[in-house]
Specification:
alpha/beta, Aspartate Aminotransferase, domain 2, Aspartate Aminotransferase, domain 1, seven-stranded mixed beta sheet, three-stranded antiparallel beta sheet, 9 helices, 10 strands, NHTrfase_class1_PyrdxlP-BS, PyrdxlP-dep_Trfase, PyrdxlP-dep_Trfase_major
């Protein structure tokens, strides 16, 4: 069911982790040494840079276009690659390929719902690029506290990732591993969860996204970016009307009792934006 002709793998290619964040940490530490760099999206999950910093790994931020599609600025991404670049982290869906390995954060998997939008696992797009997929049950199955994730090493390039896989396996043994009870339930979770569960989740997310987008689009000075997947929405605002990010966030708390985190500190240098969870 999960290994396909476009992205085949075996049990030996899978390493369990204590959630997708732990899977990302193992992938980053195994693939890069101190002084080397990994490319991460901006705006993006701040944990990427947090995992790099204590290990002496530089996180270089490539731009996502802040328009109605949020596509990768490929020219900017390419300009950041040098001899010390070890991987590119792509959050899929949230929106490059070449000889640089990709760490695909696919924790949101099939949670896509925009018109005509489909989820394509990164590993299915090219047989020539080594890819490490990080995933888990937290988001799609709505059980974030269960902390069970995994890495899948897709290496159809003559063993390019063979040493990296050994490193990931070694890192996975630093702790006892994810909860044995949840591990035991995983086969049933993957096999027996009805498709209606995912359909209903996506319908709810799509409805919430549409409602929030329509309401915010009517507010002068706000520029919501309509999502096509996951459970977040980026909203730009006009500083001349609302002030800087700090003033905007404080005003929202005092007037509406809504708490936000401003992306310049959380989502890495995207001015005049906030992020909403719907």
């Amino acid at each position: 069911k999960f290994s396909t002709s476009e992205a085949p793998f075996t049990a030996d290619d899978v390493v369990l982790a204590s959630g997708c964040s732990h899977a990302l940490e193992m992938a980053i530490v195994a693939i890069a040494d101190p002084g080397q760099n990994i490319l991460v999206p901006r705006p993006g999950f701040p944990l990427y840079s947090t995992l790099c910093q204590p290990n002496g790994i530089e996180s270089r931020q490539y731009r996502l276009e802040m328009d109605d599609k949020g596509l990768i600025d490929l020219a900017h991404l390419e300009s950041l690659i040098d001899s010390q670049t070890r991987a590119i982290i792509v959050n899929n869906p949230s929106n490059p390929t070449g000889v640089v390995p990709i760490i695909a954060d696919e924790i949101y998997g099939d949670l896509v719902y925009g018109e005509g939008a489909r989820f394509h696992p990164m590993a299915t797009l090219s047989p020539h690029v080594p890819i490490i997929t990080c995933d888990g049950i937290g988001k799609r199955y709505l059980v974030p506290g269960w902390r069970l994730g995994w890495l899948i090493v897709h290496d159809r390039c003559g063993g390019v990732l063979s040493e990296i896989k050994k490193g990931i396996v070694a890192l996975s043994q630093k702790i006892d591993g994810p909860c044995a009870l949840i591990q035991g339930a995983l086969p049933s979770i993957l096999r027996d969860t009805p498709s209606e569960f995912f359909d209903n989740t996506k319908k709810l997310l799509a409805s919430n996204a549409s409602t929030v987008y329509d309401k915010l689009s009517r507010v002068p000075g706000l520029r919501p970016l309509k999502p096509q997947g996951a459970m977040y929405m980026m909203v730009g605002f006009e500083p001349s009307l609302f002030g800087d990010e700090t003033k905007f966030v404080r005003g929202l708390i005092s007037e509406e009792r809504v708490v936000c985190l401003a992306p310049p500190s959380l989502y890495k240098l995207v001015p005049s934006c906030i992020s909403l969870t719907k």
